[in-house]
Each structure stands twice: as C-alpha cells, then as structure tokens.
Amino acid sequence: MSENPERAAKIAELNDQCRRGRNGLITLSEAVSTLKPADQAAIYRLVRDFNTFTPDNNPYGERDYGSFEYQGELMCWKIEYYAPDLHYGSEDPSDPAQTQRVLFIMYMVER
C-alpha cells in the first residue's frame, strides 16, 4: 500500500474519473483499434466499469491498472501520468493541474 494513503486515494479518484472519460486521453493499441466499433465500445465499457481491484493488481491503491477477458482474449488497461505537454512524466499525479492522464487499452499479448 502507498506510504501516503490520502494521496493514493486522491490519485485513485482521478484515475476512476479518467476511466470514465472525464479527465484524460484514451489510447487503444493498434490491435484493439482494428476491432469493430461495437467491440471497441464493449471493451471500453469493461474498462470503465472495472472494479476488481486486489492487492495484486493495485498494490499502491491508485487503481491505475486492470485486466479482464473479452471474447476469450486477455485484455488490460493502464493509466500513465504525464506532464500537461505530454513530453515528460508528471511531477505529482495527485495534482490535476500538473498531470495529463493517458489510459492505454491493449491486449495482454499483442496479436
């Protein structure tokens, strides 16, 4: 668990907002982007509604990663923290003014 639970909780809330399309960019891997729009939408709904966080996939309490199965394929998503210009990492992911979140959705093993 995080050394600072309050900071981790703030980051987790911002990450939940990002997964729900409220404060970040969404990027699909090339393989996911070639799927039919209906499949892309279904996968995004699974990411948006993901709530199966455990100590294994959420060791720092930030809710920045998840994996799931879609039509027999293992999928995952990961939120990364960048500076607002997207050139460097964020200095403080708990501060929305200093952070641009990017949600990556991909196959666990690219096809």
By secondary-structure content and strand pairing, the structural class works out as alpha+beta
Tally the beta strands.
4
Rg of Cα set: 14 Å
Amino- and carboxy-terminal Cα gap = 33 Å
Side-by-side strand order of the widest sheet:
1-4-3-2
Report on the biggest sheet.
Answer: 4 strands, mixed
Global mean pLDDT: 95
The shape is globular
Describe the protein's architecture and organization.
The protein is of the alpha+beta class. The chain has one domain (5-107). 28% of the residues lie in helices and 26% in strands. It contains 3 helices and 4 strands. The protein has helices at residues 5-19, 30-33, 37-48, and strands spanning 24-28, 65-70, 73-82, 100-107. The protein has a 4-stranded mixed β-sheet. β2 and β3 form a beta hairpin. The longest helix has 15 residues, at 5-19. The model has no long low-confidence stretch (mean pLDDT 95).
Question: What's the topology here?
Answer:
Layout: H1 5-19, E1 24-28, H2 30-33, H3 37-48, E2 65-70, E3 73-82, E4 100-107
Parallel strand pairs: 1-4
Antiparallel strand pairs: 2-3, 3-4
Organism: Kouleothrix aurantiaca
Pfam family, one: DUF3768
Protein name: DUF3768 domain-containing protein
Short summary:
It holds the Pfam family DUF3768. The chain has 111 residues and is an alpha+beta fold. It has three helices and four strands, in the order αβααβββ.
Features of the shown structure:
111 residues; alpha+beta; 4-stranded mixed beta sheet; 3 helices; 28% helix; 26% strand
